[in-house]
Automatic annotation (TrEMBL):
Record organism: Phenylobacterium kunshanense
GO MF assignments: metal ion binding; metalloaminopeptidase activity
Annotated protein name in UniProt: Aminopeptidase P family protein
Family designation: Belongs to the peptidase M24B family.
Comp. bias (Pro residues): 161-170
Region of interest (Disordered), ranges: 159-179
SUPFAM superfamilies xrefs: Creatinase/aminopeptidase (SSF55920), Creatinase/prolidase N-terminal domain (SSF53092)
InterPro entries to which the protein is assigned, alphabetical: Creatin/AminoP/Spt16_N (IPR029149), Creatinase/aminopeptidase-like (IPR036005), Creatinase_N (IPR000587), Pept_M24 (IPR000994), Pept_M24B (IPR033740), Peptidase_M24_C (IPR032416), X-Pro_aminopeptidase_P (IPR050422)
Alphabetically ordered keywords of this record: Aminopeptidase, Hydrolase, Metal-binding, Protease
Amino acid sequence: MRQTFDETTERAFGPRHVPLIRQAMAEQGLDGFLVPHEDEHQNEYLPAANDRLAWATGFTGSAGAAVILKDKAAVFVDGRYTLQVRDQVDSQMFEIRDLVEGGVPAYLEAAAGRGQRIGYDPRLHSPDALARLKEAAAKAGAELLPVNDNPLDRAWGKARPPQPTAPVVPHPAEYSGEDSAAKRARVGAAVGEKGADAAVLTAPSSIAWLFNIRGGDVIRSPLPLAQAILARDGTARLFIDPVKVTPELPAWLGNQVRLETPDDLPQALAELKGKAVLVDPAQSSAWYFDTLQAEGAKVIRGDDPCALPRACKNAVEIEGSRKAHARDGAAVTRFLHWLATEGQTNPPDEITAVSRLEAFREATGALKDLSFDTIAGAASNGAIVHYRPTERLNKRAEQGSLLLVDSGAQYLDGTTDITRTVAIGEPSQEMRERFTLVLKGNLALAAIRFPAGTTGSAIDVLARAALWMRGLDYDHGTGHGVGSYLGVHEGPQRISKAPNSVALKPGMILSNEPGYYKEGGYGIRIENLQVVTEATPIPGGERPMHGFETLTLAPIDRRLIVAEMLTADERAQLDAYHARVREVIGPQVEPEVRAWLNDVTRPI
């Protein structure tokens, strides 16, 4: 098994570890310390050695923060984790607060005391976030101070896991579709157009994409932890721990890329004195800005120059994604068939469901890893948006309940992410109606045509409209970007209520995942991945319009659909989707699975 079901934290982490952190704070003359979720690479998913927030609080979600003061502490999470945080964090030790509404700045303004010295690790915070935090602390009369010796790391001591050392390997052109030299020339030219001599790159996904390399330092993502400096002429310096450098890597990178160690990075930054250097304040920590400015470089703030070209997949990557989804769809369909047969007469527990789905993916012979730990939520656990089964929380599905399964896989030719909600036994009318509302949102977002320049925030309402009309909603984004054998969460594109200035462009892959969650009852989510298509004319229209091609192929549980709630166009759209599923998946699966698939994808 790739996925395990042990808990890596416990509620006692806060009471056990916060006193140690406070002792280390006191030794440095600090009255408080800021603990972000992100690590030195601003990763969302973290290697165990960098999961500081989990060690300090017990909270293992992918977004959050904590503030530890001498006499009080608070942990901050967003709407995805409101249930999880109550289960994992000791509420006597930590006040639980909203990460979005006010967040850490509001807490500092209210809780910090006049004259207090509150530390932060400049390698872990973006400069823009720090500016807001410093302003809030100043309003309270407190001061934020950078520390070279992280008191949490000191408290963690020898118990801290070692840094990952997964080998870094080439990612061939048959999957990448463009060699690294061409990418570096193209991105280097863009750096020059911004008036910069070089760009500092710290995002593992950008480094993996630019150099056509993959690693395994970040859980469930084939990413190497590294840094790079890209010159405007396309030459580069790549800083990787030597233990991760495989024998074929130097020749693969070529003589325009200089391989160095992370210990060489400070000197390399010093050598940029007098140069104009592009750095992304959303991807690179304050340490880079402080170091470059101290060394006399001219810092240009701007977006990571790899982010947009990485997001706009080329033809090879798109075709690879189609193949990955066809392969993955067959595995998921076998799993759904198992749930529809054995799983109905002998409902599985969550761990069994996760294990069976992983086994179906392993049987493809192409699985490199999961793209995230599978979420399998039976009944009330399905209402916990980012729930992960453990031995303690494991629940068996029951007759008359729903099972929500959100999963994905990493293949050399693509990354997948799919959610299906399945009825176990006979669902209630409320379940069916709310599932259909979610389905209407998914269909609306899949069918939309939109002009160039449209952002994801402009179309987010399509996925929510049917729910809103019934007084319902969900507290997570509707769509995130997805990489090409990279991270399952990829920017800069997204579909959400939050304002987003990044236009949707051809080749971008995004999820389409509206949902509904009844606390204590059940959860519903339907998720497909879809790629933005080139703009094409619409008969009678005046402007070419972009659209989406749905990549994910697996049946949607028709037992949960109230057909009368769908319009004629929605029924036709669902029927057309299921016809594609039959056409692509049917030939790949066994006769008994094919017979079932033909039945459950018949016209609505």
